[in-house]
């Protein structure tokens, strides 16, 4: 794709050679929205949610043992 036509995924501003590609979600962003916290990286949020669910499942038997005591 022609670099002059690439736009920021969040604000649609043309980014040209100053684009930053997010390694988590794969979108291109301008310098203002390049950080994951600035563009609310959905890929990171999904990973965090999966980790939270996995942790809950992993510690469920431990909670049951503690309640029995």
Helices and strands in order, then pairings?
Blueprint: E1 20-21, E2 28-29, H1 42-68
What is the number of beta strands? 2
Radius of gyration: 20 Å
Widest beta sheet: strand line-up: 1-2
| Uncertain spans | none
Q: SSE order, as H and E?
A: EEH
The residue fraction in helices comes out at 25-40%
Mean pLDDT: 71
Quaternary structure type: single chain
Indicate the CATH architecture. Answer: Irregular
CATH class label: Few Secondary Structures
Number of helices: 1
The structural class is: mainly alpha
Shape: rod-shaped
Major beta sheet summary: 2 strands, antiparallel
CATH fold call: Zf-an1 domain
Beginning-to-end CA distance, first to last residue: 63 Å
Number of structurally distinct domains: 1
Binned strand content: 5-15%
């Amino acid at each position: 794709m022609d670099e002059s036509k690439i736009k920021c995924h969040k604000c649609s501003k043309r980014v040209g050679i100053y684009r930053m590609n997010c390694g988590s979600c794969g979108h291109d962003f301008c310098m203002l929205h390049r950080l994951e916290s600035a563009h609310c990286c959905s890929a990171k949020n999904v990973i965090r949610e999966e980790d939270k669910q996995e942790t809950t499942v992993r510690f469920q038997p431990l909670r049951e043992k503690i309640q029995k005591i």
